[in-house]
Amino acid sequence: MQFNSRYPSLNSKLYHEQMPSPLKGAKAGHFNAALADELQWSEDEKAEWVEICSGQKTFPEFHPLAMVYAGHQFGQWAGQLGDGRGLLIAQILNKNNQTIDLHLKGAGSTPYSRMGDGRAVLRSVIREYLAGHALNALGVPSSNSVGFTTSEQGVQREKLELGAMMLRTSDCHIRLGHFEWINQYQPELLKEFTEKCIEWHYPECLKAENPILAFATKVIQNTAIMIAKWQLVGFAHGVMNTDNLNITGSTLDFGPYGFMERFRPNWINNHSDYNGRYTYQNQPSIAHWNLWNWLNHLIPLATPENKEQFKQDLADSLEHFEPTFLEYYTHGLCQKLGLPSFHKDSFDCGMAFLRILQTEQLDYTDSFLRLQRKEYEAIKDDCLDRRQFEDFLAQYESIRTNQETDELDGEMFKANPVYILRNHMAQTAIELAERGDFSEVDRLFKLLSQPFIKQVDLEKAEDLAPLPSDVPEVMVSCSS
Ligand code: AMP
Ligand code: MG
Predict the structure, then answer these.
(1) Whole-prediction pTM value?
(2) Is 391 a catalytic residue?
(3) 413 pLDDT above the threshold of 80
(4) Which of 171, 243, 363, 463 is catalytic?
(5) Hey, where are the domains in the chain?
(6) Does 44 appear as a known binding residue?
């Protein structure tokens, strides 16, 4: 590993140094060898992955630390939060010379644990491990994980579960909530902290006339792009609190997430989200709300003479959110449908298709695949309102007339995954893993490595469809 330790150069009020506390009887869960290669792990380091991913081995180059931050949870100010069960154990360079954080989740309690036990359970670790891998392979910016370990130690949740640890990788663990903590508790740190954020994550903004405004705009744009990509693959994060969004716009801290199966825009995967704040369809507006809240925390960086103008400029920077989101979403939706994004009716046609999926409760992923395979009759057969589908198809075919359909079809193959991580797939892998069998985790890991390619030897019929509607859905709780 090539260390590039930079977080510890910040004011020490922003973190607490502490060592991981290993679990009893730690043992291998799963290892992402390709990611370890990308992160330039040596053969010796790879051989020690279980020790590293269980907190038994740390590095002299980096003293593990828990970050402090704050946040708005479900729209309410939650005060001080922080890494209550995870530790930053290294910052290293990947093959592209990009700095990547290694964050060990489940490593024991910290001063920020509040009432929590500092642990993570195998169930939630497997869910985060597979989803991070799936999102990366789908081309959605996201944290990932080098590996996870299980243990013999019981951890109490609704029932007694197995403790586990996961070594998460991310280009950034600085959350919007970091700024909230600083302004609430140590406002004198804001200037230097923001400068470091820009230097580390958006160095190109240093050249701008106003680097802070340029930085704000980039954070807004990257977040909008990330959300557009979530919507396109049908990903619902589940807990879009301000402490779970980072400043680079890569997906982080998804616990009760889900990949959409039957298309329901108001779907809540997180069963603890009683008011439906974080439904799939709310994600763009919640991201906008979080960013608006965050921009307020940059206002103190104005100089006394330009305060009003700076406030206005920050507010204006948020105007980038919607067009950026729409540009990426529209382009992606057209690609999924095999429609030219420059055509004035393509977006409407896409919306008409989504309305069919919604009214007919069709599977989001599978329906795009059927369209790609031109199985129009089969889709129509699944519709109660056949007329609605015929109208869509007439418009769809008329837009595609006289277009380069080979090229458009090629785009569809790149945009429509064959495999997503359905809740019941993760659940089967979890139940086996809890009995010590990680073969299903491994199978899903391989399958989701190449989500756009049909893998007949690896796939199972249940990977391709939602559970029948008379089978109760897997309940995904916030507890993890
Ligand atoms: P989350 O919604 O999972 O991102 O967690 C919100 C906050 O609660 C973060 O500050 C976490 O570190 C903390 N937290 C969650 N679970 C635990 C736990 N079991 N022990 C200690 N802190 C926790
Ligand atoms: Mg969190």
Answers:
(1) 0.97
(2) no
(3) yes
(4) 243
(5) 7-176, 328-415
(6) no
